[in-house]
Design brief:
By secondary structure, this protein is an alpha+beta fold. The chain has 6 helices and 6 strands, in the order αββαββαββααα. The protein has 2 domains: 105 residues, MutS, DNA mismatch repair protein, domain I (3-Layer(aba) Sandwich); 63 residues, no CATH class.
């Protein structure tokens, strides 16, 4: 099912869990994901901006082997469980649940700061590196961090130019 179709289904239902199949996994999106983790089972929720639909979406996924257990839970709670199509399941009768906006805001996580490389010579001590070697190493790390999001073509050209200028300055061939 396409993202646009999933979001259309989600917008049309307030207190219903819509599960959609994506190959071997079933997914609950946006409000359905909130209702799912509130009433059925806790799963990790992912959130990202999708350019194709120009909005942020949140979803959770679980393997198709869990679907029978979810059907059992829904029926035990007195909710209706309906297989609309091979790729769509609905669970109706869920009680009114508040807190969706707080849940949505809480999903956003700051990206973790990249970890420092754990090279044996990354942390300098008195006898490990000469000052020039440490400076060159720090410069390499700085260049790598500054250019990590650049397209590869530009990074490779930048590296080639740095190497050429270094060879000219030291008088090396290469």
């Amino acid at each position: 099912m396409k993202t646009e179709d999933i979001l259309t289904i989600e917008e049309s239902s307030e207190n219903r869990i819509n599960l959609v199949r994506d190959r071997l996994f079933w997914q609950a999106w946006n409000r359905s994901a909130f209702l799912f983790i509130s009433h059925i089972k806790k799963y990790q929720v992912h959130k990202r901006f999708i350019h194709k639909v120009s909005q942020e979406v949140a979803w959770l996924g679980f393997p198709k082997s869990v679907l029978a257990e979810i059907e059992k839970i829904a029926k035990e709670k007195g909710w209706s469980y309906e297989q609309v199509s091979a790729d769509h399941v609905t669970i109706d009768g869920i009680p009114q649940t508040i807190g969706y906006e707080d849940w949505w805001a809480g999903i956003v996580k700051k990206k973790p700061k990249p970890a420092e490389p754990n090279f044996p010579f990354a942390k300098t001590t008195k006898n490990t590196l000469l000052a020039a070697g440490k400076t060159a190493y720090d410069l390499c790390l700085h260049i790598h961090r500054a250019t990590v999001k650049m397209p590869k073509e530009f990074r490779y050209e930048l590296g080639a130019r740095v190497r050429n200028y270094t060879n000219r300055a030291t008088g090396e061939q290469g």
